[in-house]
Amino acid sequence: MRLKKSLGQHFLKDKGVIKRIVDAGGIGPEDRVVEIGPGGGALTEEILKRNPLELYLVEIDPDWAEYLKNRFGDRVKVFNADATTFDFSSLGENLKFFGNLPYNVSTRIIRNLLDHRKVMKRGVFMVQDEVADRLTATSGKEYGYLPALLQNFFRIKKLFKVPPKAFVPPPKVMSAVFEMEPTGFNMEEGELLAFENFLKKAFSMRRKKLKKNLGIKKFPPPFSGLEEKRAEEISPKTFFELFRALYLNKGGL
Ligand code: SAM
């Protein structure tokens, strides 16, 4: 079958890398596993060797979805669907996620997973190396609104890098595998969206101070003085505390 560049179809061929990714998830016989973007089934095959209780596959390409059904039969449940909007919560609880994610939509898929954090036990994903660096950054130029948001809900850790030669066809950039695990921190959905918008505003003009981006001259104590800083200097946790002080304690949003 022809590989579709538009869907980020760079398939893994390096058996050592495939094994390392699946090992990182630590699958046991009681695990319900979800694989995002299974494509030709390189990771799927390795996941099945660990005999999980269930394996759900979410693949947008109908040709590969059909191929996976034929190849793995009733050992898997295939969903021909878009992982940027898929309702992962419909699959049950305590799910372990894997995926060599399509690079053009990797952050959108991860943002969708935030909405399904309550059913997630752990996730191990491959993305562009640069994206892994951004997701794990807590300050500086790689840091942005998405890591500031995600790191309140997940512990995110970069595990290892993967060179282009591990794939067919080889991508132009280095890749990296990272893991994410919910911290148990929670927020009601409306608050989460308000927090996300607050962070987007805070990071809207990176060179500007927070007082300018947020339109607030002075922050209340104990945050006094932080308004003179730039968003990239504020940790994910401090951002949440600041958001709570500015909005949540004032009787709503
Ligand atoms: N897991 C396979 C491997 O490692 O060899 C394939 C990985 S490939 C980088 C990404 C896969 O995600 C492709 O099979 C592609 O069709 C699929 N894909 C692309 N966009 C998607 C989306 N929005 N939702 C679900 N799958 C998607």
From TrEMBL:
Enzyme category, top tier: transferase
InterPro entries in UniProt: KsgA/Erm, rRNA_Ade_diMease-like_C, rRNA_Ade_Mease_Trfase_CS, rRNA_Ade_methylase_Trfase_N, rRNA_adenine_dimethylase, SAM-dependent_MTases_sf
Catalysis: reaction(s): adenosine(1518)/adenosine(1519) in 16S rRNA + 4 S-adenosyl-L-methionine = N(6)-dimethyladenosine(1518)/N(6)-dimethyladenosine(1519) in 16S rRNA + 4 S-adenosyl-L-homocysteine + 4 H(+)
Keywords from the UniProt entry: Cytoplasm, Methyltransferase, RNA-binding, rRNA processing, S-adenosyl-L-methionine, Transferase
Keyword rRNA processing part of the UniProt annotation: yes
Function statement: Specifically dimethylates two adjacent adenosines (A1518 and A1519) in the loop of a conserved hairpin near the 3'-end of 16S rRNA in the 30S particle. May play a critical role in biogenesis of 30S subunits.
Protein name in the entry: Ribosomal RNA small subunit methyltransferase A
Organism encoding this protein: Thermovibrio guaymasensis
Gene: rsmA
